[in-house]
User: What shape does this take?
Amino acid sequence: MTKPVRVRFAPSPTGALHIGGIRTALYNYLLARQKGGTMILRIEDTDQNRFVPGAEEFILESLQWAGIQIDEGQGVGGPHAPYRQSERKHLYKKYVDQLITSANAYYAFDSEAEIEAMRDRLKAEGNDNQQYGVHSRMSMKNSLSLNESETKQLMESGTSYVIRAKVISGQEVVVNDLIRGTVTVWSDTLDDKVLMKSDGMPTYHLANVVDDYLMQISHVIRGEEWLPSAPLHVLLYHYLGWQNEMPQFAHLPLLLKPDGNGKLSKRDADKMGFPIFPLTWKDHHTNEVAIGYKEAGYLPEALVNFLAFLGWNPGTEQEIFAMDELIDSFSLERIGKAGAKFDIQKAQWFNQQYIRAKANEDLANYLLDSLSKEKITCSQELAAKICGLLKDRVTFPQDFWLQSRFFFIAPTSYDEQVTSKKWNQEAVTVLGHYKDQLKQLTMLTAELAKSTLEKVTTELTVSTGKILQPLRVALTGGASGPDLMASMEILGKEEITKRIERALKTIPIK
RNA sequence: GGCCCGUUCGUCUAUCGGUUAGGACACCAGAUUUUCAUUCUGGUAAGAGGGGUUCGACUCCCCUACGGGCUACCA
Assistant: This one.
């Protein structure tokens, strides 16, 4: 019988969750949904020094925005509550005591300076391995090197201590990874990691293994940065007698910076001008505000689609995947091994695709939002019409307003490029006639605007092409934009004649 | 330095021993749009290097190079 799928996303609230975390959460979520399993959110806040207020809420809000639903865990509760590791402190004690009893862990009393001295010493001796471990632990101050009464005395005198894992010597430790296959490490190269800190809090390693066991996690899907400590985790499962309950591991390839090399960081994102956080985040110390994907205009479906493809692909040529399609197609086996460089242009392309796929009526809401901020009123119907016109030239929702501004606000300046090149006597004459002809019309449609223009240009034997740009400049102030005739229909006869008149008066003839 | 992981067009990737090495983004060109964008068509562009194994290697093995991660009482 196979274990029910129970996966967890386990971020630590040490700052804003970044885009890579969303991808990790997404992969967990996709597997959970596909297998009818459970998606768990656990907060790994064992480092009290690095706690950042608001970070946990940020995680919750970000996941919700991305459409990643939590079935169990922080924020929703569940049978294994609490889901915040700081509130589970009492649980870890029991297991670390068990490890002490079974001689798989020991007390260590060394100060920071003593550890540093040990490292310096080993380094000076030309030793490659400068870790606190098999090669060095007997020369340190711990319950292995000290006799029982010395140890007891130190503990009773209140000397601060940590508990370290006693990593076995001379053994191969094998990590079975769903993405990487078998990873084998010689145990002597592992160090005696601290399991319990002097403040009584567990470290990641202990808390993680204990919680994954208690919460009956079936798959540990996390970033590749954890691969080096996975052997220790495997050892811990064995030491605790849980080897049969050990989850399957899947270490995800990292998200790399777009140029050069290295892990994607906030710095790179800032430098290249794209967001790193799903939502806007204000740093509590610097008060610096980092704009999020949401606020930058990325649609959550688009971002999710983009992220899913950074390290995974379905093996077909389909690229646009809604969440439920991702759920159907996802598989851990098809996740790549190599790190993926982050390409914001592709993210923008996905965003474009998702915007285009929306109905004009839905798009209209984006425009209406912008308009209400500008205190401009507009009917839903008209907004939809404008969005339809703009749809194919837009990447972000806010572009609708940016590109339709001229519909609502008459130009106050005119594009220099066009006026200096095209605004000549001929254009002015044609535009004057055209305006007069338009005035005669009872109603204006795109077709009529066009036929009237053609009529005027043939009468004056001028090519229509020469007039189009001056006309656009007069009406919109800009050099480019959506279909001019369709725009005129929306603008209406009155507004058009007014704008042409104004342009004729204001723009100097070249 | 040590340990571990990785390496196909500029980027994301397909290929699970036999392909003219495919697609997408980006880029370039042409067509359409009497402008721009869109759209359409086409194009440039890749198996890090060296050894094996094999009738045959991008695919399997080894070495080298390069890249990345880890190396905290951080996760």
Summary: DSSP finds 21 helices and 14 strands in chain A. The radius of gyration of chain A is 32 Å. Residues 19-34 of chain A form the longest helix (16 residues). Residues 221 and 250 of chain A are 5 Å apart (CA to CA).
